[in-house]
Structure formats: structure tokens, C-alpha cells
Amino acid sequence: MVKNDVKQSGFTSVPGRIVAVIFLSLIVVGTIIASAMSNYTVNVIVDGQTIKVTTSEQSARVILEQAGVTLGEKDWLDTSSFTVGKNAKRGNQLVIKRAMPVTIDDNGDITEVLIAGTVADALEEAGLTCRPADKMNYKETDFLVEKMTIKITRAFTVDVIADGKQQEAEFLSGTVADVLSSLNITLGEEDEVSPSLTTELKAGNTVRVYRVTYEERTATEPIRFETIHKTSAQVYKGETKVEQEGKTGTKDVVYRDKLVDGKVSKSIKLSEKVIEPAQNKIVVSGTKIRVLATGSQLSAIPMPYALQDNIPVNVITTITGNSTAYYAAPGKGTASGRLAQSGHVAVDPRQIPYGSELYIVTTDGKYVYGYCVAADTGGFVGNGTIVDLYFNTYDECVQWGNKQVCIYVLKWGNG
Do residues 401 and 325 lie in contact, with contact meaning Cβ atoms separated by under 8 Å? Predict the structure, then answer.
């Protein structure tokens, strides 16, 4: 069909315009009739052969019928070089692409299609799409040829986390450095990345960029004092005293902090300066042996009753027999529940009930253990000893040894 465009200009009256339209219509009709009646040549190219057709037809399908060519269901007709009225010697042609088997290797998944046309047609027939990041061994505009295998290498997704956000990159192959470059992510001199820049990426990889900076800071910190222990012959054994109290000092410490994404991950001490030194605590432990004084009370419990000639005035009964001495670790309890301490003595509770108040003196009157309370059960029960006296130290126990004593019962306990 020939299309004619006519521009109207210079007509001023309606009758004149009508005459012009009728005249132009006659010209167009005549042109169409003339075109329909004139013959032209078309080359029909099919199966490697060229068939020249002389025709006045305008339909490509009709021209194929004139050439005796039949299109299969999957065949493809290329009309890109066909123009009605143009002769074959000027390149006018119809090209038939016969359907043929094509293999598509999609990342290892094989699909067979029977199709004619271009690579894009084969992909469409197989229901496949090749993304821009994917790689294909042909262009989509390439025509299909016999025994053709289209191979697609699929890009995979890589997650990249940097600067507080996560991005996805379609990646075909390459290293961590390549994917960072594709996303326009640059690294500072101190920045770190995991995995390393030279690592070859695989599907499922996650790349993390850590922004690293360094800062120096000064912190005032305490200097803790130590406790120093020493001994003195001026202090009795078993006793301690604080010779000097401890005092915490202060110092200024300079650190170099490593900040990863704005948070301190590591600190290195660069230097420190003592502002006020610490004062150590000194504790003195005694080594002086306490000598038992004749006639003075050794028990730590004060005597609550009156004495007459060094004998209590309110004695209920008197028991005589052998005595021994013992000591125990600080805070240790007794059989009656009381603490083991000077003034609490061990007895046979069947003879002297717990809680009984006693006053004990050696039978020769040289040593006075003094006022005490029956609080514990002695391991001596049954061997002839009637009382085991508590002392604070082993040395005092050794000095006492075994002595015959007189036990004045001042008040019976309730057990």
C-alpha cells in the first residue's frame, strides 16, 4: 500500500475546498489501483535455496504460497527485508527460518526446545530469562543455527554490609575487591574487610566492611594498695595489729583505642603517670610467747563472784583431778553451741553439765585458770582427766601441760 500525504493551503471558499478534496481522492485511488496492478519481484529464501517470485500481491503469506513454500508451526518468517513494490535485485526478500532443536544449558540445567528465530525466541520458548548480570555465549539477537547449544552462566547474589546498611550485588565471578568496586565502596587506610579482598566469592557469601579509626584518650585510674604482712617480737603470738592503714593512689593512663564502626574494640596502654602513689597496708603478727603468770587469772571471762582468800564465797561443791589444755581455730564451735574461746572448758557432761559455772585453780595454788563455763565435751572422757582448759595458742597449751586442779562449782548448768 502506498500512503500519500497531501497538505492543503491557499483555499478560501468551501466549494473550492470540496473540489480540491474530490480531485485529490481521485489521484490517491488511481495510485492505489496502479500499484496493485504493477508486478515486482521477491526472493524467497528457504532451506538454503532462493526462489524468485514475480507478484503483485502485498501479503507475505500469499507470496509464500505462490513460491510453493509451507510454514511449519514452529518456523519463523523474517520480513525485515521485505517491502511491497520493491524488486529482488534491490534486496527485497522473505527469509524462512526452519524450526530446529536447540539445547539450553542453564547453569547445568539442560532444556531442549524446537524453535526457529533468534536466541531470544529460544529463551522465551523455554520460559527462561537472561538477566543483565548473567553471562551467555550468544547475543539474544543472534539467529539460531543447527546443533546450537546456548550456555547460560547465572550470576549469584552477594550480601555486602557496610556503613550501617546492607546491599545485594548480582555477581558472576571475582573477588571481594571486585564486588566492593562494583558497588562503589571504597576502603580507608585502616578499614578492614571480611573475608579478605583477594577471596574468590561464592553463592551465599556475605562481605562485611569495618570502618576503623584510632583515638587517644587519658583516663584517671586508682592505684590499689597492697597488704604487707610482717612479724614482731613485741606483739604476743596469736595477736595482730595494723601498723599502717592502706591508701588508694591515682594515676593518669594514656590509651590508644581502636574503634570499629564507632565502637571501641581494643585499647592499648601507651603510658601512665602516677599522680598520687598508693600507701600499702602493714599488718604485724606477734611472735612473743605469753608466759603464764602465777596467781593471775588466765581465763578471758571476768570473775562475776566475790573471792575470799582467792576462793569463791558461794561454792556449791568441789571436784579435784587432772587437767589438760587445748586450743582451736578462730570461730570454731563447741559441743554446746558456744564458741571455742578462753574461759570455755571441756568436761564430761555426765559429771559436770553444760552451762555450769566453775572456778579452777591448781591444787598447789600457783596457777589460776579462774572463772569459766563448761561448754565442750573433752576427748579425755574415761582416761582420768576431769577438765580440758582452752587457751588461745599452742604455746600456752604446752606451758600448761597436765596439772592437778581443784574445780569449784559455783552454779550447776542445765545441760
Answer: yes
One-letter amino acid at 70 equals T
Torsions phi, psi for 374 (to 5 deg):
-70, 115
DSSP line for 279-318: B-EEEEEEEEPPPPPTTSB-SSSPP-S-EETTEESS--EE
Give the mean model confidence (pLDDT) for residues 396-409. Answer: 94
Which grid cell sits at 84? Answer: 511491497
Q: Note the pLDDT of residue 25.
A: 41
Any idea which of 36-45, 215-224, 345-354 has the lowest mean pLDDT? 36-45
pTM over 0.85: no
Cβ neighbours, 10 Å, residue 204: 9
pLDDT per residue over 262-311, tens digit each? Answer: 999 999 999 999 999 999 999 999 876 555 555 689 999 999 999 887 78
Q: Can you tell me which residue has the cell 564451735?
A: 333
Cα distance between residue 184 and residue 336, in whole Å: 84
Do residues 206 and 194 make contact, with C-beta atoms less than 8 angstroms apart?
Answer: no
* Apex 154 CA angle, 148 and 160, nearest 5: 165
Tell me which residue of 330, 341, 324 sits closest to 397, measured CA to CA: 324
Whether the per-residue pLDDT at 205 is higher than 50: the answer is: yes
The full set of domains in the chain, from first to last, is 40-97 (no CATH), 100-153 (3.10.20), 156-210 (3.10.20), 219-287 (2.20.230.10), 307-411 (2.40.40.10)
